[in-house]
Amino acid sequence: MSTPRPTLTHPSLSIICHEHRALSAMLRSIVLLLREHRRRNTLPDFDALQAMLFYVDEFPEKLHHPKESRLLFPKLRGHDAHTDAVLDRLDRDHAHGEQAIRELEHALLGFRTMSGTRQCEARRADFETLMKKYAEFYLDHMHVEETEILPLAQSVLSDDDWAELDAAFLLNRDPLTGHQADEAYKPLFARIVGALRHSGNFGTMLEALASAALPTGSPPPPPGHPAGGEGS
Ligand SMILES: [Fe+2]
Ligand SMILES: [Fe+2]
Hints:
The protein is mainly α. The protein has helices spanning 11-40, 46-76, 81-113, 120-156, 159-171, 186-197, 203-213. Residues 213-232 have low confidence and may be disordered.
């Protein structure tokens, strides 16, 4: 039986859950993309995979997790021993993320650099294994936050706490959560959209990326269009 998600009555809770959806979709897309290329016995678009890992590093790792560890978690510490133990584990996860993403980037570089040699399949397997482990690790992490920490925050924090959190959380947001990306990031998302479009139907992820990469109201460009991000 699935655990019910918290009712989102504060902007900061809503932002956390939307950013979780964006990160989940990106992680699942990378794993699916790798599986699809393995099934076809083809090499992936390495530039697109690099762009996807860059997104995970640039938004979830550098913006989302610090907002939780620095702003939300301290307000919940001391509530009870179980909560403190859960927060310790989540803070350790956040601290581990930086190193984990570097290992992933190195494994991808190894796969790319050695793809023309007899090491190609071993390097592919190394990257797939690390990527799957990273995705499972963060999907479980987000599940714990949504089932244990957010409901507790909802029930114990004061109006003053929420006013402070909401102001801080609204300051920096992941562009894959329903608002326009900064111009500088549009080529990044366009590159990812292009790779996903040519690798099967990734549904929600593709729509989220397309709306972040393109002007509001514009349909995604057809395959082959420069904004589709192909080029490899
Ligand atoms: Fe987190
Ligand atoms: Fe989170």
